[in-house]
Amino acid sequence: MPVDVLYFDYWTRGIRHFTKIDIDVKACGLNSLLVHLGSQRGEPLQNDQIISGVKCIDLAFYDNDLVEMLMAERPKVVLLLNNQTEDKIIIRACRHFGIKTIFLMHGVLTPQDKLDETAKLVDSAFGVTDRMSRIPKYLRLFRQYLNAAILARLRDVLDYEIYLYFARQALSPGGNLAGRWKYRDSCADLALVYSEDDKQLFCSCFGYREDQINVVGNYNLDDMHAVHQRHLTSASKGGSSKYLVYVENGFSDPKYTVTGWTEDLVADEVEGLADICGEFGYKLILKLHPSSDYSTLVERATDHANIETVLHCDLAELIAGADFVVGQSSSVLMMAVAVRKPVVILDLPPLELKITTYADRKMGVLVKSLDEFRTVLCEAHDGRLSFSGQSEVAERFIGPFDGKASSRISDIVISLSR
Question: What percentage of the chain's residues is helix, strand, coil (to nearest 5)?
């Protein structure tokens, strides 16, 4: 059966990014498929899986060859979530095959003035041993990139950008990941972004033209909008929920640990916050990063009487019911900002704030010590703390917040698939 819409991701854990779009795609009689690299990232190798209603196939069943996969499936549209090596190969090959490509923004991006800082942070998670272990992978991808290039013209095998990209990847994987440099193959035919701020970033940093960018809003906030409206109109809303959500950012994940971060240090911070929460009658809910594979952090959090740990949950309900949301740089904090939920931004030594997206925009109260955190809870408890400042720039940062972002995305994907 021919594929109309092909989704591409690096594993199946991100299936939620496609599920709502896929419902609309199928409702229009179109066929879809998610191709992923799950077996390369520790997921069991399975063919023809159905996950949340979406058909999924591992790239391993195409001999791990992206060009071969595109030749076999010949989709009308490819929807991408990332801008890494594999995505660039797909974009290059799709240009030759006449396949439309769409980049779907799915998280908070680094501002232009923070690109170097973020690149260094990402580089710290890739040590020499880790980079050496990736050489076979990049040799395979280099060959595929050249194959994608020569689909158009044999002389394109000499395209300097391909060689420059891989040289920079060896020297600074964080630089490429953060978008420090522009490449022609970084630009899909269309980019769907959250807000006007993001549109400006895509033009200034990533090489997109204005006519290649649609501001659609943050589809991750659609459920948040519905839940928020329900909470506002619910007759049973009175009273405090008496819990805080700590949004863990994944920096201490054993797979890619950022320099200076460990599971024990994060556990120390969470335990200290939980103790203070208990003083004011709040439970601390530790929301783990969805891609994390923790052991020490989970064990220590489980042993603490005032900490509840969750990995997968209804995030919109969790955030909507919380008294405060605590974190550093996670895109989940956007959900709290969107509904004017009090946000506390942590900058507690030795886990200093690394990515300052929210702090720079003053979308929350910044605390630099446990004593300051205690003061925030005390002032909030007494009604002396105002969080009004975080609403001043929220609209431009978040984009349209009306519960219709997914529908706008689906309409665009479907129109390009016909």
Answer: 50, 15, 35
| Beta strands, E only, 298-339 | 307-310, 324-327
Alpha-helix residue ranges (DSSP H) falling in 234-314? 263-279, 296-303
Task: Choose among 151, 185, 191: nearest CA to 165.
Answer: 185
pLDDT tens by residue, 285-335: 999 988 778 899 999 999 999 999 998 889 999 999 999 999 998 989 999
3-state secondary structure 75-124: CCEEEECCCCHHHHHHHHHHHHHCCEEEEECCCCCCCHHHHHHHHHHHHC
Same domain, 406 and 384: no
Each as own residue / partner, the long-range contacts of residues 211-214 (CB below 8 Å, 24 or more positions apart, any chain) are: 212/187, 212/188, 214/190, 214/408, 214/412
- Total domains, the chain: 2
- The residue behind tokens 């420090």 is 180
The residue whose two tokens read 């946000």 is 343
Are residues 236 and 190 part of one domain?
Answer: no
Angle at 357 between CA 354 and CA 361, to 5 degrees: 130
Residue-number span of the structural domain to which 337 is assigned: 222-398
Q: Which token pair is 86?
A: 């594999």
132 and 260 both lie in a single domain: no
Distances, alpha carbon 84 to alpha carbons 88, 89, 221, 308, 378, in Å: 6, 9, 25, 35, 45
| Cα 61-63-69 angle, rounded to 5 deg | 75
Residue type, 348: L
- With cut-offs at 50, 70 and 90, classify the pLDDT of residue 388: low
Spatial separation of the C-alpha atoms in residues 85 and 78, rounded to whole Å: 15
Whose tokens are 């109260």? That residue is 365
- Domain identity same for 17 and 89: yes
Q: Please state the pTM of the whole predicted model.
A: 0.88
Burial class, 134, CB count within 10 angstroms (exposed 0-12 / middle 13-18 / buried 19+): middle
